[in-house]
Amino acid sequence: MKGDTMKSKTLTSIIAAMAIASVAVTLVGCSSATPTDTPGVDRMGQYVLKQFGPELWTVLGYRFANSQIGDEWMILEVGLSSPAGQAATVKRENVFLRTPDGNRVSLPSQKDFAEAWGALRPVISKANINRDPLEYFPPSRIECPIQFFVEPGQGVSFDEVTLNHQRGCFGRFFFYVPGGIQEGRWVFAIDQPESEIRIPFDLGE
User: Fold this and answer.
1) CA–CA distance, 107 with 160 (Å, rounded to integer)
2) Who contacts 187 (Cβ-Cβ below 8 Å, separation ≥6)?
3) Coil, strand, or helix at residue 126?
4) Tens-digit pLDDT profile for residues 131-182
5) H helix count then E strand count, the chain
6) Are 116 and 176 in contact (CB under 8 A)?
7) Cα-based distances in Å from 111 to 62, 106, 123, 148, 161
């Protein structure tokens, strides 16, 4: 009888601890997202934004980009997935930036990236130590790479990436900005067949 009572107390304590942990995680998840002045775009950290659309879930990290004023190549960290029951294909040609003065900057080709590799290599080394985690998708999703760009001689690049509710893919997006990166409000954009991603972010803060 005494043993059964001890087991019961132990089980009750475990269940209570799990419940408290669950509530804590829920509260952290709720408090970490702050709405921005753009409907549908939430701030997850000082330099991390997310937009979860009907076809595509997107998380954008721009900590390093904020230190690149005057540079000609902007480096952004991007995470992509899709909501439950959905799938999406993101094509290189449908990804772009809108500059503070309204110009469109397209995602360059792997060839353009490879030609700039010599100049980009030391910049990428700096970006490696100045970035934020982007793991804001459900933990059950399988992590995969976005390979729009690969180091020359180290693999194959692709012009599209396919997402679904089982995959969360991450990668760096490089944009060549003629005349250099300027301060102000930029917009990260992806066009999809039935929706669009538009995430404004401010550089030079």
Assistant:
1) 12
2) 97, 98, 198, 199, 200, 201
3) helix
4) 999 999 999 999 999 999 999 999 999 999 999 999 999 999 999 999 999 9
5) 3, 13
6) yes
7) 24, 14, 18, 11, 18
